[in-house]
Amino acid sequence: MKSSRSKVLHEVCGRTMLDRALDAVEGLGPQRTVVVVGHRREQVEEHLAALPFAIETAFQAEQRGTGHAVAVALEQLGELSGEVIVTYADVPLLSSHTLEAMLSQHRQYGDQVTVLTAQVPDPTGYGRILRDEAGHVQGIVEHKDADEEQLLINEINSGILLFDAVALREGLSHLDTNNAQGELYLTDVLGIARERGNRVGAYTTTDLWQTEGVNDRAQLARMNAEQNRRLCHHWMREGVTILDPATTWIHESVTLEEDVTLLPNTHLEGATSIGAGSVIGPEVTLTDAGVGRDCRIVRSHVLLSEIGDGAEVGPYAYLRPGSQLGSQAKVGTFVETKNSQIGDGAKVPHQSYVGDAAIGAGVNIGAGVIFANYDGVSKHRTTVGEGAFVGSNSTLVAPLEIAGGSFVAGGSAITDAVGAGELAIGRARQRNIPDWVERNRPDTVTGRVARDQAPGTPQQSTAQQDDASSAAREEDQ
To answer: For 111-122, what is each residue's pLDDT tens digit?
Structure first.
């Protein structure tokens, strides 16, 4: 992966590959689960410690093959009986349903070993399943050890194996490194079990994606695209309209209600939820956002925020963590909010910054209003009461309280509290200086126009100006 992060901690549709692998096996209700760790073990162990269920780890200090890895895990488990499933943390689309079907067949036939296989068009790089003339599984040969005839086989070993615990221990004790890679192959346990008269079976899946692993960023992108396609298809069947699934990305943890519409280039991440009838997009990213019913969000970014029913956001709005919009509220073009509550029906339509604020219901915030919440050391809150009006291009310097029903004149810098029904004006009185332009900018376009427009200067009509221009042209000729 060429990454500072462990491969299995890279994500597919918002969930790490390791979490996906654990979900698949946890669906079977195992008594114990062991993750074999090696490279970047600290990262993996830290991640596992944060999970809501107990996972054991076994450290493989020296990577000597898959057989050695399983032997390390068995040392961790000690004496055990029953069935043991071996899966891989870099096969992210493996499902509990497939493992359940595999386990059911294993028990039905009384097999000691069952391997998950698939028929693939290009088996290059995979181990091949060897069968006898009757179709019984004889063993697995790795790609590097296969002869020309075996390389023609297109039934491959997924690496997912189910063992009787006793047969597994016995097989591991007879492994050797007499192969092209000089490793202990777990797959050799199948041949050993067969030689000892144990039953060996295969469960074949038709979903090839469930057998595909990830070794680089290109394969990771393929997995993301496939899982996202499946998620989009699922939500469309649940009553969600997705105009362009190819450009719509949805995390596994997202929840959508019926009649939601997702327009192109919409990204829904984390624990985002969207209520019925809302239209999202185009070009919207929602991360851990709660969106109510019948909302409209256009070309905006919303992070860790809540949006009430019927609210409007965008275009080009940025709702940062802690933003809360009431029902029918509006946050419009080039507005940024953070840690602020905007009441029902309140509007912040244009080019404003709203930080650490509580805005009451029905408030109107004019264009270019800045909530100055930071004094260089600490942040402070501003409260704007219900029904207040804040004129355009005003600055509200926190800490500040503007009462309900008050009015702030445009262009004001407000530093003191404003009472109910009061008009607050915080700006210098305008002064007009006569003839300033003619004295200081006489040779500019502004100066010439000022002279022409000065009181007492004869003004030519349009017809007179046209006649004068014609006469001037004739004189030039």
So the answer is: 999 999 999 999
pLDDT at 460: 54
CB-count burial class (<10 Å; 0-12, 13-18, 19+) for 141: buried
**Tokens 């944060």 sit at which residue?**
50
Structural domain boundaries in the chain: 7-206, 217-424
Catalytic residues: 350
State the architecture of 217-424 in CATH terms: 3 Solenoid (2.160)
Residue 204 token pair: 């074949």
pLDDT at 169: 94
Q: What is the pLDDT of residue 457?
A: 65
The fold of the 7-206 domain, in CATH, is Spore Coat Polysaccharide Biosynthesis Protein SpsA; Chain A (3.90.550)
Residues of the chain falling short of pLDDT 70 = 457-477
DSSP for 261-296, written as a single string: EE-SSEEEETT-EE-TT-EE-SSEEEES-EE-TT-E
Asked whether 240 and 260 are in contact (CB, 8 A), the reply is: yes
Mean residue pLDDT across the chain: 94
Binding residues for Mg(2+): 90, 215
Give the residue numbers of the binding site for UDP-N-acetyl-alpha-D-glucosamine. 7, 60, 65-66, 127, 142, 157, 215, 320, 338, 353, 364
Q: What is the pLDDT of residue 459?
A: 58
| Among 198, 207, 214, 197, residue whose Cα is nearest residue 162 | 198
pLDDT of amino acid 463: 47
